[in-house]
Structure formats: structure tokens, C-alpha cells
Specification:
2 copies of one chain form a homodimer. Chain A is α/β, with parallel strands linked by helices. In chain A, about 40% of the residues lie in helices and about 15% in strands. The structure holds a DNA duplex.
Chain lengths: ~325, ~325
DNA sequence: TTTCAGAGGCTAACCGTTTAACTTGGCCCT
DNA sequence: AGGGCCAAGTTAAACGGTTAGCCTCTGAAA
């Protein structure tokens, strides 16, 4: 079933059918339009996207590049990824576009072959700043980087208020009377999400004039559960020194809680814990985890708006937007009087 | 950059370049092949997938249709979905195909517009048997239904040994000395995953000759956490009657454990619990949840093999494969002497 | 010496759309 | 009466590949 067939059935040329399909109603008479539309509906005809994108040089396909989903590690398989993916798909579809998904280990391995599809734009998740700039160059299409921190403003990025998140967690503890607070994170010395969160954490102590413990910073190799357990055990082993822990990821927090328990400390009676991301699991961990929440739908909408404004050619320069965070109170924190 | 350009640079016709690209090496001389390949490499040329699929009538695109990912509910946002998605993507890509993702609320809303892309095949997740048959008719392309149970064998399906899973859980409890075992599930009267699991559960009791408690079956509205909590509370309220619970989903089990706690029962000291799916979260719930595990990579590979054998036209009729399950022991179960 | 096969290559048609440019007739204005 | 303009079409070219069919040359077999 193609244009030509429809045209023949309607007794008009293919161009007329094409015009009707694309809403160019000033190019045809009312009767013609109705006749053609009737036939289209009856035959359930849908134009070929391939033919269309071939000649129009735009495919209405958006690529979404996301790190390794298949891994058994909670961080990859995390509901975070599923949800943001779901929201992005909805946004893309609501605009009449299609989503092509690509999971990658190394960001680079990818994109040349995606280019064969004349991709209109791309969302890239969790790419480092350096890689991001490379990628931006390789694919000369509009791209929005989600959770990437670039020092310069050449990239269009959408992230959350990571710094404020760290700040909120620390301030919450300080307000609750905690003074000895550990910070569990992957390395914070490079620009990125974790550094921001740590900066915010420090901000709160600075603002309050409270000294940080000299060894409050506990660096882990990754944000997986087992590393959290180790960190928790270390904290437990340091005696009653720390009364509270901020972690940069919920999964890490789940591990820390287990590690503390293994080390003989109760959560939250002996040590309070705050996570980051507010995964659905926070509601059914034990104890339920207090966490910094990011509004994923908002994040996706934000990213979508950025990308589609670029697609429309509104080159309002690269935007760098941050979505609000908030602290969600649950049972893993108690006040310290 | 297109075929014509490359052809001109190499001093040959487009056909020759095309042949070289597609490995038809018997159609060109060794020198020509090398010259053309060199130019292709230098210019980093990639042929247009749109043009190609237009004329070849196959796109190398596989559609993946998955229910609502964006929901905040653990069951949608579940790592299960993320992981199976990741594995499917890997399989698809390993075959040189592309993955188009579509999240749906109602399975039907979808597929006519996907057809515009000349999709070669599709994976459909979590579609009911009835819908599946409709869909199969609508899109006349090879499709593999994952986690769909059809009574007849007209559909190609891949699922897990759900019945055996239910059996394993029940048998494990019986072997551990439990006699009063509750079964928490969404309705089991219609064909589907849950019915299979329940059947397996009953099988074990029948085999052992142990009577089931008259009200052992606790039906929930869905497999979300809150429903699990309610079921757990109900079980707790029924006094010391039940010493063990089998649930049809881990998230439900997490809820049940919380509900039992709220009702004053300890897990596993008073009541033991087994989940289903073996989500990564089982490793960091409290207590760690014993669960029936499905091998997702295997499941994806299985589905992939089915689909690609259909794509190759090997019409070995519709296959209905089931992937193995096993019981993973953790801390949520103790023996009853 | 003719025949035949195969290597190596080319031309033309085709896939299903969109777009630019052209046609035709009717109407209005001068 | 002639020109200009608009509505409602049409035809032809283009997008970037693939495929079928044709051509030419060389070497070997009959």
C-alpha cells in the first residue's frame, strides 16, 4: 500500500494525496480532501517513514544512549534508568518522534552507525564531560547530555541540583543535632555529579561553622552495594565516632546500613543514614531510607524541551538546566540531642 | 557523503562500491576492492540506512514493546524491565540490528505507526494472551512474546518455568518442615504467569500429600508494595496460623515482610518468606530475600534466537520455550522443626 | 576456429515519498 | 480585450541506495 495506489483509487496524483496527508489544505478542494481522507482511513494507509526521511533528510528518530543496562549491578539495572527511559520515551512519542535505544559500555563505540539512520537528535545519559565534548563533535546533531557536568557551557546539559542535594542532606543532619557526619562517595576530585554533591555537603558545614571530622570522606570504588557494606563496616569499626552518614547513592546507602548492622551498630538508633536518588526501593528498605529526591518526569521534560527547541533551530545557545531536588523524610534518621 | 561521491573518487560505478560494501567480493578485482575500501575508510563513509531499507524492504529495526516504564511503581520501574531491555538490546545489536523502543499503556495504541518503519520483527513484553493474538494479526511480522501464556501454540513465546518456580518454593518450605503456607498473588483464575506459579505451588502439596489451608490463597489487586503490606498484615492478624508465605513477586514479598513486622511478627523467626524474580534488591532487603531466580540473559538470548530464526525464514512453526528457574537461598527462610 | 564460461564492470530501473516548477481555467480589474 | 492572480491540480526530478540485465574481454575447451 503506497501513495500511488491511494492516488489511483482517488483519481488524483500522488502529490495531491501527499498534500492532503500533510495538511496542506490550501492545495486541494474540499471535496478532494474529503475523498482522499476517506480512502486513507478505509485502507488504513500509513506513509513509509523510510521514504519520507530519505528525501526530507530528517528521520524523526531520537537516539537515546545509556550506559549498560544489562548488568546485574543495581546501579545499572537501577529503576532510575528504567524510569528516566520511560519518561524520555513518552516525551519523544508525544512529539510524534521515534526512539532508538542504544546501550553502551564505552560511549564512543557507538555513534557512527547510528548516524546511518539520519538521527535528528540524541539524549545521552551519564557521559563524562570529556567524552561528551568528543561525542558532540562526532555527531553533528542536537544532543542533550543528562547528568553531565561540563565546566564550559558549550554543551547542552540537564542535571539536578546536585550541590543543593548535598547541602540539604548535611543541613538536615546539622539541624537534627548531628555533628560527626561521614560522607560516602566515589572519588570527588574530578568535576561531576559526586563532586557537586560533596561541595554542597561542605557548604552546609561551612555555613554553620561546624568543623568536619578530618577523615569524614570515605571513598568507594563504585556506587554498588558491596562497596557500601565495606564503608558501613569501616564506619562501625571507628567506634561511636560518627552518628550520621550521607551517601551519594541509595544503593550505597543500603549497603552502608547493612555494613553498620554487621559492625554491631543499629540504624537509625546509633547511626542515621541519608541516601541520594530516592529510588522506589527507599520505601521498602529497612529502615525506610531518607533520601534526596529528583523529579524524574521533570528532568525528562526539561531535557525534551531543550532538545526540541534545538530541533526547531531556536539556537538560544547551549542551555544548562538543573532540576530541583528535595529531601524526603523517612525512618533512617533520628535527632541527636 | 554518498555512494556516488565514493564511486567518483574511486573511479568506478556506484554498483561496484555497493558490491564492495556488501562483501560481494567475486564481483570486483582485488585492486578495486582495496582501493574502494581505502576510500571508504578514509572518508568514514556509512551508507544510508533509510535508502537501504527503502529499496530492500527490510529495515534491520526490531521493535521492543514494553508496558509503561515511567510509572513510579516498583513493578514498572523494576530492575527486571531494565535488565531484560538491556539484554535484548545487546542481542539485537550483536546481530547488527537496531532497536526501536515503545512503552505502552494499552498494547494496541501502538503498532500501526511503528509499521511505517518497515520493522523487521518485534519483542513484546507482558502482553495478555488475548491481546497477543490480536497484535499478531495486526502486525504481520515475526514477533516473540515474552511472558505471555497462550493456550494454543500459534504464538511464539518465551517465558520461564513459572510452574516449576511455584513448585520449588512450596517444596522448599515443605522440606524445611513448614506445613501452613500462604500464597500471595494477583488473581490466579485466568491463564497467565500467576496461574502457572500457583499451579506449581499446589503441585508440591499434592505430591507430598499435605493439605492446603482452606484460605491459603491471598489475592491482591496488583503486585505493588502496598498490596504486599496489606497481605502481610492480614497474615499477621490470623495469629500464628501461617509459618511461611510464597509471593509471586519480590516487590510483593518486600511488602509482605513489612506488613508482618507491622503486625508484630518477625521475619524469618515467626514467618518465612519467599519471593519471585530474584531482583537485585533481594540482596539488600532486610532480611535478604530468598527468591526464585530467572536467568534474564538466557531469557533474552532465547527470545533473540526465536526471533532471528523467524527472520531467516526458518519456519520451524511457533516455538514456546521456557527458561530455567532456580531457588536462591538467602535469609528470609528458616527451618521449622 | 568457434564456443563457452567467468571475471569485472557498467547502465537503467526501482523503492515511496517530497518539492519545485509548470499548467489550466476562472475571475477580477483596468 | 488583455493582463494578472488565485485555486487546484499536474509532471518531473530528487533522495541514496540495490538489483537485474547487459557488455566486454580473456582463457580454456571442443
Amino acid at each position: 500500500m503506497n501513495l500511488k495506489t491511494i492516488a489511483k483509487m482517488a483519481g488524483v496524483s500522488t502529490v495531491t494525496v501527499s498534500n492532503v496527508m500533510n495538511g496542506k489544505y490550501n492545495k486541494a478542494s474540499k471535496e478532494t480532501i474529503e475523498r482522499v481522507q476517506k480512502i486513507i482511513a478505509e485502507t488504513n494507509y500509513h506513509p513509509s517513514a523510510t521514504a519520507r526521511s530519505l528525501i526530507m533528510k530528517r528521520s524523526r528518530i531520537i537516539a537515546v544512549v545509556i550506559p549498560n543496562l544489562h548488568e546485574d549491578e543495581p546501579v545499572s539495572a537501577s529503576p532510575y534508568n528504567t524510569q528516566i527511559l520511560g519518561h524520555l520515551e513518552r516525551y519523544i512519542r508525544s512529539r510524534g518522534y521515534y526512539m532508538m535505544l542504544r546501550c553502551v559500555e564505552q560511549s564512543f563505540e557507538v555513534l557512527s552507525d547510528l548516524a546511518t539512520w539520519n538521527i535528528d537528535g540524541a539524549f545521552l545519559l551519564g557521559v563524562s564531560a570529556g567524552d561528551a565534548r568528543e561525542l558532540q563533535k562526532m555527531m553533528d546533531i542536537p544532543a542533550v547530555f543528562i547528568d553531565t557536568y561540563a565546566e564550559d557551557a558549550s554543551l547542552t546539559t540537564v542535571s539536578i541540583e546536585d550541590r543543593k542535594g548535598g547541602y540539604l542532606a548535611a543541613k538536615y543532619f546539622l539541624d537534627m543535632g548531628h555533628r560527626q557526619v561521614a560522607f560516602v562517595s566515589t572519588p570527588t576530585e574530578y568535576p561531576g555529579v559526586m563532586q557537586e554533591r560533596y561541595r554542597g555537603f561542605c557548604d552546609a558545614f561551612l555555613e554553620r561553622g561546624t568543623e568536619l571530622e578530618p577523615d569524614h570522606l570515605m571513598i568507594t570504588d563504585n556506587v554498588f552495594y558491596e562497596q557500601g557494606v565495606k564503608a558501613g563496616e569501616r564506619i562501625a569499626a571507628s567506634g561511636p565516632r560518627y552518628t550520621a552518614v550521607v551517601t551519594v547513592a541509595d544503593v550505597l546507602a543500603f549497603g552502608v546500613m547493612e555494613g553498620l548492622r554487621l559492625g554491631g551498630r543499629r540504624v537509625p538508633e546509633d547511626v542515621s543514614v541519608i541516601g541520594f536518588d530516592n529510588l522506589p526501593e527507599c520505601q521498602y528498605s529497612y529502615p525506610r531510607l531518607t533520601s534526596i529526591s529528583q523529579h524524574l518526569e521533570e528532568k525528562a521534560r526539561c531535557a525534551g524541551e531543550c532538545l526540541f527547541s534545538m530541533l526547531r533551530g531556536e539556537t538560544s545557545a547551549a542551555c544548562n538546566r538543573q532540576v530541583e531536588v528535595e529531601l524526603v523524610e523517612r525512618q533512617s534518621v533520628i535527632a541527636r540531642l
